[in-house]
Amino acid sequence: MSAEDFSDVFDADVTHVWWGTVDEPPGPDAIAVLSPAERASARAMTEEAGRHYAGAHVAVRRILGAYLGTPPAGLRLGRLRCPECGDAEHGAPCVVWPVTELSYSLSRSGPYWLLGVTGGGHRIGVDLEQVLGFDTESVAPLVLSDRELSHLGREQQPAARLAVFLRYWTRKEAVLKASGIGLIADAREVDVHGPPDCGPLVVRHAAGTGPDTWVVEDLAVGPGRYAAIAREAAAAGPVRLIEKPPPTVPEAAGPAEPDVKRSTSWPSATLSLSMT
């Protein structure tokens, strides 16, 4: 596989994780790839938050469009129904058209975004958080399990306590997003106890009729940020961590047919890869 070949995401159990930063306001051509609902959501936010939201969603559409050989604006994105209550408002995101077995999960924190993509229709969840804005002391008892609270209590320095909390929080949210239920669940019941650099964790959490065993891994996405990914234990193969400008499929290329499986042509770009 060449450095610019990303078709392995369609192979069994392979996962790609893209990450980047919204450095500048998206231009008119970029905004044009968003759906009317996405543009409305961005306009309803503060200027800064709307810029970050729009930039991240443009990146998502460009990346997914490149995988599927579809212009970004031609993608129809939606949500699956929550496996617990059946509500599609907070279910896992999905590609409605073109028909595909690709699954994805997006997380944003300020200008930073993280996108996990995997094939085979397998469930996936990612979470990304910055080291700021957390009231660890008041929030921790509401979301951490007894084992996690005990570990947190052994840390005396504020910076170390925040690091422990964010590591646990990103792991938990990744699992809850992968399960498709999101934060309506009791986070205390999702035990992700384990030290940093301990390798993948096997976590038990069931929602509806979906998988009940997940593999959770921390991701290295730069200083001042914490991130994690959760995948079905039965389909947790290699993770490819990618930082680069998102690829594009020109609008002039026309829409892909529903049975298009993958894109075979990716733009050249500086690529930094690491395995986690």
For this entry, give a set of tags:
single chain, 276 residues, alpha+beta, 5-stranded mixed sheet, 4-stranded antiparallel sheet, 6 helices, 11 strands, globular
What does this structure look like?
With 276 residues, the protein is an alpha+beta fold. The chain contains 6 helices and 11 strands. It has helices spanning 28-31, 36-43, 47-68, 136-143, 146-153, 158-179, and strands at 15-21, 76-79, 93-97, 103-109, 112-118, 124-130, 201-204, 213-219, 225-232, 239-243, 272-275. Helix 2 runs antiparallel to helix 3 (47-68) and helix 5 runs antiparallel to helix 6 (158-179). The radius of gyration is 18 Å and the shape is globular. The chain starts with 14 loop residues before the first strand and ends with a strand. Mean pLDDT is 84; it is low at 252-276.
* Global Rg: 18 Å
Shape: globular
Model regions low in confidence, pLDDT < 50 over at least 5 residues: 252-276
Rounded mean pLDDT score: 84
Largest sheet: 5 strands, mixed
Note the topology.
Elements: E1 15-21, H1 28-31, H2 36-43, H3 47-68, E2 76-79, E3 93-97, E4 103-109, E5 112-118, E6 124-130, H4 136-143, H5 146-153, H6 158-179, E7 201-204, E8 213-219, E9 225-232, E10 239-243, E11 272-275
Parallel strand pairs: 1-10
Antiparallel strand pairs: 1-5, 2-3, 4-5, 6-9, 7-8, 8-9, 10-11
Helix pairs in contact: 2-3, 5-6
Brief account:
With 276 residues, the chain is of the alpha+beta class. The protein has helices spanning 28-31, 36-43, 47-68, 136-143, 146-153, 158-179; strands at residues 15-21, 76-79, 93-97, 103-109, 112-118, 124-130, 201-204, 213-219, 225-232, 239-243, 272-275. 26% of the residues lie in helices and 24% in strands.
